[in-house]
Amino acid sequence: MSDVRITVSPPTPNSQQRPIFATRVERTLDAATLGWTEIDTLLIGDPQEIVLQQVDPGTHFFRAITIDDAGDESPGNNEVSVTIGFELPSDGTIDAVVE
Question: Which CATH superfamily is domain 2-10+18-84 in?
Fold first, then answer.
């Protein structure tokens, strides 16, 4: 297992967009069959970083949903993935006895 650090960089709204209120970070192993699960919601002005500890081996997908001050959400099309490898198997024990 490994730790995963996720850093979010919220967008700067243009003149036709409302101010950004927060960013919701979500995670999945397979969006098609498992859907997305919220990890945390980061308010603007707070640290935009999450550290997940002891993440199991496998490929994990993350996305950030931007939420404006009216509660409207971005589509969440930006995704990133990390792959945590499995460790090699441990050696078993072996004994040898002279008879």
Answer: Immunoglobulins (2.60.40.10)
